[in-house]
Amino acid sequence: MDHITFETERLFLRPVLEKDASVVLQILNTPKFRKFVGDRQVRTELEAASYISTKMLPQLKKLGFGNYAVIRKQDGVLLGTCGLHNREGLEGVDIGFAFLPQYEGQGYAYESAVRLKQAALEDFGIKQILGITSKVNFASQKLLEKLGLKFERMITLPHDEEEILLYRFSAEEE
Question: Distance of alpha carbon 92 from its chain centroid, rounded?
């Protein structure tokens, strides 16, 4: 599978693959992910590999973009993920990020999200980028605003009860 990869000053971004299951398992089960994004009921490395192949890779194959492993150049460590998601219930592509706790607060989410936002606009022809986050995830709200997304309204996604914040960036308005 040959897909575009991206690079920043400190990071490589390449599609998340089944071989990343151990890190994806850790991310999906961090207290912050479970609190702010939800419990994906993934408890083993095998379930994480299955989650990658059934929930992440189909969109990549269909649309050419998806969830990216964020890898630190200096030592090859997988820090987290950053992705462009075509999500049910949203009219547009959502930018999202999730990092292991020990790599938070070091600018990696911002650096990778800036590069993916650029890729969305330049490489994938996406004109609007959305961001969704929980009402209490202030770090995510701050990051979406730093990326140039503006709060639009409260929404509820299909199969979910919780109201969440919807942010939007439109290339036409820039």
Answer: 14
Hey, what are 53's tokens?
């192949």
Here the tokens at position 16 are: 């998340």
Whether pTM > 0.90 for this model: the answer is yes
What would the two tokens of residue 38 be? 């939800």
- Is the domain defined by 6-173 classed in CATH 3.40.50.2300? no
Rg (CA), the chain: 15
Taking the domains of the chain in order of start, what are their residue ranges? Answer: 6-173
- The answer to whether residues 95 and 113 touch, using CB atoms and an 8 Å cutoff, is yes
- Identify the segments of the chain with pLDDT beneath 50: 1
Contacts by residues 56-65 (CB-CB < 8 Å, ≥ 24 positions apart) = 56/16, 56/83, 57/15, 57/16, 57/17, 57/18, 59/85, 59/86, 60/1, 60/3, 60/15, 61/1, 63/124, 64/3, 64/4, 64/124, 65/3, 65/4, 65/93, 65/119, 65/120, 65/123, 65/124
Task: State the Cα–Cα distance between residues 96 and 103, nearest whole angstrom.
Answer: 16
Calculate the CA 91 to chain-centre distance. 17
Whether the Cβ atoms of residue 65 and residue 6 lie closer than 8 Å to each other: no
Closest CA to 91 of 132, 44, 149, 59: 132
